[in-house]
Each structure stands twice: as C-alpha cells, then as structure tokens.
Amino acid sequence: MTISTEERDFFIALGERIAALRKTHAITEVQLAAALGVSQQTVRAYEVDRRRIPASALPVVAKLLQVQLEELFGEACHAGRGKRGPMSQLERSIGRIAELPRQKQKFVLEMLETVLAQAGA
C-alpha cells in the first residue's frame, strides 16, 4: 500500500520525536521495545521510518515518554497553560530545550540559573 508524501513526512517526524523524547527521558531502545513487546530492531525501525508504528502502540509510547498523544503527533499541547492562543517564545524555547540531549539540557539549565542568580530572581 502506497502512502502520500504528507503521510510519509508525518511518520518520519513521529519517529524522530519518539527518538528525541526517549533520549530525553534516558529510555533505551531496549526498554521501549520491552514495553511494546517488540524487538529493539523494531523500535529502531520505527524511529528511522523503516516501519510504521502501529496506532495501538502509541498510547503505550506516550505514557512511557510522559507526554500526551498530541505531543507525539507534533501538536502543541496546551493543557494546563491557562491561556489560549499561540505559545510564547519562552514556551517554544523550553520545548526545544526538552528535545536536546540530556548533557546539553544540563548546560542550558546551568546558564539559566547563573543569569537568574545575577538578576536576583
């Protein structure tokens, strides 16, 4: 069965988001595979778009990665924000920081703490 370019782009981005979130939460491919009842190679195939992840697996992935399904799909999750409308620059930046490797997240946090301490906040 052939899929459209738009569908293919969606699955590529989905795999990339799963991989980034998995790394952010220090979850290995093996751990994700165990939660899904598949092999590590299958998880790798989902993340690099050699295989499409089944829809039935997405709630398990979202729960393990501590995100809403909307976030897995690339939609901004506004739950608990308390306001409507587009995300602020700060919210977008925090989202981008969350996708960085853990070591770089730590570096950014240290920089923020330094700036806040200097500002007396």
Structure at a glance:
This protein has 121 residues and is mainly α. It has helices spanning 5-24, 29-36, 40-47, 58-65, 69-72, 89-98, 102-119. The N and C termini lie far apart (57 Å).
Give an overview of the whole structure.
- The chain folds into two domains: 1-77, lambda repressor-like DNA-binding domains (434 Repressor (Amino-terminal Domain), Orthogonal Bundle), CATH 1.10.260.40; 78-121, no CATH class.
- Helix content is 63%, strand content 0%.
- By secondary structure, it is mostly helical.
- The chain has seven helices and no strands.
- It is elongated and about 60 Å long.
- Residues 78-82 have low confidence and may be disordered.
- Helix 2 packs across helix 3 (40-47).
Structure class: mainly alpha
The overall pLDDT, averaged over residues, is: 84
Strands, count = 0
Give me the CATH fold name of the largest domain: 434 Repressor (Amino-terminal Domain)
The span between the termini is 57 Å
Total number of helical segments?
7
CATH class of the largest domain: Mainly Alpha
| Helix content estimate | 55-70%
Uncertain stretches: 78-82
Quickly list its features.
121 residues; mainly alpha; 434 Repressor (Amino-terminal Domain); 2 domains; 7 helices; 63% helix
What is this structure's SSE topology?
Layout: H1 5-24, H2 29-36, H3 40-47, H4 58-65, H5 69-72, H6 89-98, H7 102-119
Helix pairs in contact: 2-3
